C-alpha cells in the first residue's frame, strides 16, 4: 500500500528531473540536421549563397528544392542520395545541391526560384544568372536514369571555357585531325586518348571517364574516321591510343557506355593507372532522435492527449512565416483562400492576446487589398510583430515531434489545428458548417507544397463531397474520415515515422467505445471522443505571453506537467 501511494509522486519527480536535465540538451527547429550531407555528394544550401554558387563557371549544377516535412520528399531522399553518390564520377563538371524550402532562411530563395511544389529538380549551366536566365531548367522526372539522361545532354552543351582542370571536349574529331592535334587540345597530364564511336555513347563515356584525368576522350562521329588513326572502321568501337599512336583495342562486355568504361578501366588498371577515389554507396538514413526529443516522444506516446499548444502555434508560425511568404504572388481564388484561412486563425485563435491583435490587423489588411505578394505578406506580419509583444513561444513541436529528424512536425500540426477548429466551430457556431474543411481544402490546394499530398487531398475532398457537409458535427466527422483515408493510404509507407505508425484513429486502446462489436467505428461515439480530445480544456499548455528568441528554445516543461 505504502509503495502504491508513492508511485505517482516518484514518477512525477523523475519526470521533472528528466525534463530539467533535458532542458540543457534541447534543440531548436533550425538546428534540425539536414536531409542530405556532403557524404552523399549533396551540398546543402542555405539562404542567398545559391545565387553565387549557380554563377560559378565551368560547372553544371543540379539542384533539388524540397520540403523536408513532405512525405514524398523524404520518400525520394534515398533515391536521390543513391543517385548523387553514383554521379560523384561527374564531379569535375557537376555539383549537386539541395535547398530545403521548409526552412525560414530559404523562404526568399524558394520564392525567387518560383518553387510551388516539391520536390522540384532543376539544372543550371555555367555562369547562371537568375536575373538574366530565369529560374533554371526543370527536370520533370524523379527517376534517376531519366535524370541522368537529361544531365548528359545538358552537360555536353555546357560551357567549360573557364575550367581549371582538363576540359572535356564534346565536339567530335574533325576530318584530318592528327593524334598530336588531339593531344594538344588537352593538357600535358593526358597520357592516353580514348576514341569512342558512336556519338551518344561517346558523350556518356566522356562523362563516365572524368575520374581518369589522364585520359582524354574524343568522339568519332563517322566510323570511317578510325582509319585516320590506323584503325579499321567499325560500327561500334572504343580504342585507347598512347602518345606514340600505339592503339590498344578494347572489347567491352556490352554495348553501353558503362561497359566501355569498365573495360577501359580494367586496361588502365593493368597499366598502373587508377581513378579518383569514389564515395561508398549511400545507405538509407534512419536516425532516431536522442536526449530531450526522445523523451518528449516517449511522453507523447504514453499519453492519451492529442492536443498540445506548441503544435498549434507551430502550425500557424510556419504558415505565416514560411508557407505564405514563399509564394510569389497571391490573387484570385488563391487570395480568397488565404483570407478565409487567416479569418479562421483569428476566429479560433490559439495565440496569446497580442497574437489575436496581429491576426485582427492581418485580416483587416487582407480586406483592404485584393491581391498580395508573399514578400508583402511577410512584411506586414513582421511589421505587426515588431509593434506587439512576443507572440510565439515554442520553436519545437511536442505532440507532433517526430522520433526521427523531419518526420511528422508541420503536416501533423496542420491536421491537429484543423481538427481542433472543427470542434471549436461546433461549439461557437459562428461560421456555417464546412467553413473549416473548406479552409483546409484551400490550404492544401494552394499553400501545401508537397506534390502528392496536395493533389491527393484535393481529389479526396471532391470525392467525399466536401461541399455537402450540412452540420458542424458532420464537419468534425468529415475531417476525421478524410484523415483516416490518408492514414490508410500511408500505412506502412517508408516516409512515415517508425514510432508513429499510420493507423485508423482513434485506436481501440484509447477509445474502446468508439468500436462496435463487429469492429466497425461507432460514429456517435467517435464524435464524442473527437469533441473530448480536440477540446480547449484538453489542450496542454498555457497562453501566457511568451518570447520567441532566435537560436534559443524555451523549455517545454510546462506542456508536460499538466
Ligand atoms: C491535408 C493533408 C493531406 C496529406 N496528404 C498526404 C499524402 O497524400 N501523402 C503523404 O505522404 N502525406 C500526406 N500528408 C501528411 C500526412 O498525412 C501526415 O500528416 C504526416 O505523414 C505526419 O504523420 P503523423 O504520424 O504525424 O500523423 P498525422 O496523420 O499527421 O496526424 C496527426 C495527429 O492527428 C491525430 N489523428 C490521426 N488520424 C486522425 C483522424 N482520422 N481524426 C482525428 N485525428 C487524427 C493523431 O493524434 C495524430 O498524431 C497530408 C497532410 C495534410 C495536412
Walk me through this protein's architecture.
The chain has three domains: 31-156, Glutaredoxin (3-Layer(aba) Sandwich), CATH 3.40.30; 179-270, Glutaredoxin (3-Layer(aba) Sandwich); 291-561, ERV/ALR sulfhydryl oxidase domain (Four Helix Bundle (Hemerythrin (Met), subunit A), Up-down Bundle). It contains 20 helices and eleven strands. Helix 1 (2-23) crosses helix 10 and helix 11 (309-323) crosses helix 15 (409-428). By secondary structure, it is an alpha/beta fold. The longest helix has 22 residues, at 2-23. A hairpin with a 4-residue loop joins strand 8 (237-242) and strand 9 (247-249). Helices cover 45% and strands 8% of the residues. Strands 1-3-2-4-5 form a five-stranded mixed β-sheet, with helices on one face. Strands 7-6-8-9 form a four-stranded mixed β-sheet, sandwiched between helices. A two-stranded antiparallel ribbon has the order 10-11. It binds flavin-adenine dinucleotide. GO terms for molecular function: flavin-dependent sulfhydryl oxidase activity; protein disulfide isomerase activity. It catalyses: 2 R'C(R)SH + O2 = R'C(R)S-S(R)CR' + H2O2. Residues 26-157 form the Thioredoxin domain. Residues 542-562 are annotated as: Disordered. One of its GO terms (biological process) is protein folding.
Amino acid at each position: 500500500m505504502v509503495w502504491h501511494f508513492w508511485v505517482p509522486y516518484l514518477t512525477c519527480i523523475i519526470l521533472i528531473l528528466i525534463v530539467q536535465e533535458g532542458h540543457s540538451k534541447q534543440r531548436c527547429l533550425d538546428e534540425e540536421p539536414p536531409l542530405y550531407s556532403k557524404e552523399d555528394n549533396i551540398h546543402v544550401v542555405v539562404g542567398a549563397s545559391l545565387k553565387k554558387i549557380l554563377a560559378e563557371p565551368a560547372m553544371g549544377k543540379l539542384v533539388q528544392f524540397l520540403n523536408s516535412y513532405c512525405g514524398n520528399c523524404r520518400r525520394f531522399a534515398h533515391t536521390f542520395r543513391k543517385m548523387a553518390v553514383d554521379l560523384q564520377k561527374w564531379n569535375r563538371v557537376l555539383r549537386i545541391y539541395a535547398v530545403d524550402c521548409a526552412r525560414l532562411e530559404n523562404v526568399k530563395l524558394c520564392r525567387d526560384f518560383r518553387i510551388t511544389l516539391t520536390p522540384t529538380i532543376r539544372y543550371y549551366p555555367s555562369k547562371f544568372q537568375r536575373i538574366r536566365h530565369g529560374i533554371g531548367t526543370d527536370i520533370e522526372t524523379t527517376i534517376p536514369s531519366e535524370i541522368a539522361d537529361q544531365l548528359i545532354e545538358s552537360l555536353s552543351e555546357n560551357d567549360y571555357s573557364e575550367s581549371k582542370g582538363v576540359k572535356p571536349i564534346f565536339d567530335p574529331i574533325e576530318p584530318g585531325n592528327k593524334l598530336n592535334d588531339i593531344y594538344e587540345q588537352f593538357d600535358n597530364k593526358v597520357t592516353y586518348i580514348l576514341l569512342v564511336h558512336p556519338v551518344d555513347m561517346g558523350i556518356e563515356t566522356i562523362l563516365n571517364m572524368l575520374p581518369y584525368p589522364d585520359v582524354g576522350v574524343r568522339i568519332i562521329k563517322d566510323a570511317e574516321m578510325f582509319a585516320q588513326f590506323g584503325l579499321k572502321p567499325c560500327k561500334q568501337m572504343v580504342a585507347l591510343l598512347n602518345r606514340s599512336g600505339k592503339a590498344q583495342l578494347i572489347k567491352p562486355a556490352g554495348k553501353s557506355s558503362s561497359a566501355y568504361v569498365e573495360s577501359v578501366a580494367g586496361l588502365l588498371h593493368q597499366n598502373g593507372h587508377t581513378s579518383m577515389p569514389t564515395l561508398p554507396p549511400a545507405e538509407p538514413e534512419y536516425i532516431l532522435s536522442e536526449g530531450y526529443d526522445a523523451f518528449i516522444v516517449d511522453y507523447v506516446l504514453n499519453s492519451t492527449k492529442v492536443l498540445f499548444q506548441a503544435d498549434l502555434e507551430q502550425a500557424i508560425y510556419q504558415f505565416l512565416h514560411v508557407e505564405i511568404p514563399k509564394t510569389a504572388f497571391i490573387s484570385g481564388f488563391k487570395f480568397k483562400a488565404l483570407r478565409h484561412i487567416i479569418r479562421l486563425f483569428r476566429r479560433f485563435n490559439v495565440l496569446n492576446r497580442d497574437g489575436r491583435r496581429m491576426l485582427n490587423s492581418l485580416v483587416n489588411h487582407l480586406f483592404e487589398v485584393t491581391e498580395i505578394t508573399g514578400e508583402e505578406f511577410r512584411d506586414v506580419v513582421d511589421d505587426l510583430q515588431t509593434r506587439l509583444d512576443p507572440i510565439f513561444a515554442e520553436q519545437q513541436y511536442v505532440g507532433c515531434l517526430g522520433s526521427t529528424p523531419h518526420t511528422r512536425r508541420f503536416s501533423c500540426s496542420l491536421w491537429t489545428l484543423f481538427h481542433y477548429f472543427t470542434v471549436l466551430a461546433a461549439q461557437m457556431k459562428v461560421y456555417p458548417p464546412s467553413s473549416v474543411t473548406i479552409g483546409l481544402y484551400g490550404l492544401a490546394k494552394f499553400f501545401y507544397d508537397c506534390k502528392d499530398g496536395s493533389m491527393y487531398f484535393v481529389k479526396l475532398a471532391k470525392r467525399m463531397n466536401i461541399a455537402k457537409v450540412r452540420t458542424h458535427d458532420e464537419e468534425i466527422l468529415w475531417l476525421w474520415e478524410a484523415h483516416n483515408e490518408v492514414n490508410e493510404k500511408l500505412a506502412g509507407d517508408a516516409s512515415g515515422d517508425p514510432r508513429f505508425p499510420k493507423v485508423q484513429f482513434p485506436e481501440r486502446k484509447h477509445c474502446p467505445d468508439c468500436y462496435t462489436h463487429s469492429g466497425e467505428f461507432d460514429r456517435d461515439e467517435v464524435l464524442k471522443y473527437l469533441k473530448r480530445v480536440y477540446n480547449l480544456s484538453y489542450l496542454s499548455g498555457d497562453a501566457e505571453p511568451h518570447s520567441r528568441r532566435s537560436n534559443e528554445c524555451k523549455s517545454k516543461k510546462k506542456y508536460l506537467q499538466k
